[in-house]
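wait is this the right file?? whatever heres the structure
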């Protein structure tokens, strides 16, 4: 500093201030000082200095480039279509997203096939586990009855019933037990770190695409360094990762099929009022096709696979037309809902999934009717000022299950007394609840907006594709209108 000051003063020239201003143009450039070679610099020092300068320039260019790219990405995202999928847990949000992928980004959908294969296998094992739990309860119950006596139902201790399970069922149960250990080991790797496995009985994974890599790593054969010099013997677990359920599942295939198809087992399920076929991720009717070594999932299998969403997942789909659409798929259980709010900003459309599950209760709170919970959630979404600019698209989902329930004679008025004596069929029941949703939207929206509603069964990929094409066009048109392109 001293040197610079003394050098900057030229004796005999005009005022200091003028001279200072003149020097400022040179000295105020911080680089000129840094770049100036130090006095007495050797050749070697000079080379080192120039090299580090070049390195600094390279890093600086890289930083500029990355800022530019982040800005581009930000602008791209700002202009892109953003869709939020909302609804209670198991309402069909992730399934709808898979349908979007299948319809508009099929290559991306199919690139995830290997990871979904493992999830489907885990879904099969999950159903077997639930089935074995029911059978264990039944064994325990019947063994507590006096020998040769009739058993009693779990729900009503006073109603006797015959013992239906035999020693062969016990043997099958033993033979199926290896399935449970492979499931425990694999799902432990997939579960988010902060989730208590005991409290979340269903398979769930870390948010983001990371789980697919974990699945692939956990189930792919050991690398050449591990298996060096050894060849894989087909039909053995050699050459397979021990976390890959394929071999064990294939070995258990016949037992799974015969257990599921056994009339005695079906009788126990029906006596205990257990509807495994209505549970998410149900594949036992397809176990014979899935529990084989060369199982390759169909598109429909992938769409039906169940994987609970934990947190909020961002997915971006490169649509066939080349635009990027962002989807936010949220976990729908009550504890997840506070995490939704940060994603409410700047979304073009909300697809709200509401199954007309009038006769079901929430898993996380069995005191609460599912349909009632959906209606409350809808009211909150309609009234939320942060969402007042977004289009709301209602999917009355799981229409296939509604039809099955009504066909089975389950009366809506038993669960929803206000339904009264109106006909207990799909058109009347649907219209009744659709009108309710419409009325709440009209009443609660901060400003008027159109009511879009579709009746869906999003496990039916063909029917869903036709609906999504219309939805996609509508969203795009409204988005383009908003950014003044049309
Ligand atoms: N039968 C039938 N099953 C459906 C339908 N829609 C979804 N499912 C099944 O219901 C289960 C739950 O669907 P998901 O899409 O995972 O539900 P979600 O809303 O993402 O649930 P969370 O991630 O827990 O919030 C899956 O096993 C689906 O296959 C439908 O329309 N009909
Ligand atoms: Mg989900």
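ok assuming it is, sequence goes like this
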């Amino acid at each position: 500093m001293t040197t610079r000051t003394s050098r900057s003063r030229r004796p005999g020239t005009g005022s200091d201030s003028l001279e200072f201003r003149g020097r400022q143009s040179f000295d105020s450039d911080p680089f000129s000082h840094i770049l100036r070679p130090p006095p007495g610099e050797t050749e070697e020092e000079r080379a080192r200095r120039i090299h580090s300068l070049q390195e600094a320039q390279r890093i600086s260019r890289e930083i500029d480039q990355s800022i530019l790219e982040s800005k581009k990405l930000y602008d791209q995202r700002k202009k892109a279509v953003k869709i939020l999928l909302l609804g209670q847990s198991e309402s069909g949000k992730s399934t709808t997203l898979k349908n979007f992928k299948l319809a508009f980004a099929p290559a991306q959908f199919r690139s995830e096939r290997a990871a979904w294969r493992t999830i489907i296998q885990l879904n099969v094992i999950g159903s077997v586990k639930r089935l074995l739990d029911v059978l264990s309860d039944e064994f325990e119950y019947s063994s507590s009855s006096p020998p040769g006596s009739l058993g009693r139902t779990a729900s009503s201790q006073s109603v006797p019933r015959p013992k239906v399970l035999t020693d062969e069922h016990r043997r099958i149960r033993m033979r199926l037990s290896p399935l449970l250990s492979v499931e425990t080991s694999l799902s432990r790797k997939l579960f988010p770190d902060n989730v208590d496995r005991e409290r979340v009985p269903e398979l769930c994974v870390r948010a983001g695409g990371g789980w697919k890599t974990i699945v692939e790593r956990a189930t792919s054969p050991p690398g050449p360094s591990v298996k060096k010099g050894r060849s894989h013997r087909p039909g053995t677990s050699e050459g397979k990762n021990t976390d890959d359920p394929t071999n064990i599942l294939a070995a258990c295939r016949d037992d799974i099929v015969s257990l599921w198809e056994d009339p005695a087992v079906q009788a126990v399920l029906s006596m205990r009022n257990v509807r495994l076929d209505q549970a998410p991720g149900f594949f036992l009717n397809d176990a014979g096709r899935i529990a084989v070594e060369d199982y390759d999932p169909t598109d429909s299998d992938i769409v039906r696979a169940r994987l609970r969403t934990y947190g909020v997942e961002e997915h971006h789909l490169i649509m066939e037309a080349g635009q990027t659409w962002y989807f936010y798929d949220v976990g729908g259980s009550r504890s997840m809902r506070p995490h939704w709010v940060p994603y409410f900003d700047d979304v073009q459309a909300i697809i709200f999934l509401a199954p007309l599950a009038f006769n079901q209760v929430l898993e996380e709170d069995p005191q609460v009717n599912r349909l009632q919970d959906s209606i409350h959630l809808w009211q909150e979404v309609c009234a939320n000022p942060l969402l007042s600019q977004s289009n709301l698209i209602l999917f009355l989902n799981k229409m296939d299950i509604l039809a099955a329930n009504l066909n089975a004679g389950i009366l809506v008025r038993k669960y929803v007394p206000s339904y009264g004596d109106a006909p207990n069929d799909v058109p009347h029941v649907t219209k009744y609840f659709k009108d309710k949703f419409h009325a709440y939207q009209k009443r609660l929206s901060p400003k008027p907006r159109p009511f879009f509603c579709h009746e869906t069964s999003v496990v039916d990929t063909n029917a869903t594709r036709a609906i999504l094409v219309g939805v996609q066009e509508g969203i795009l048109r409204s988005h383009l209108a908003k950014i003044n392109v049309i």
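The chain has 20 helices and eight strands. so i think its the right one actually
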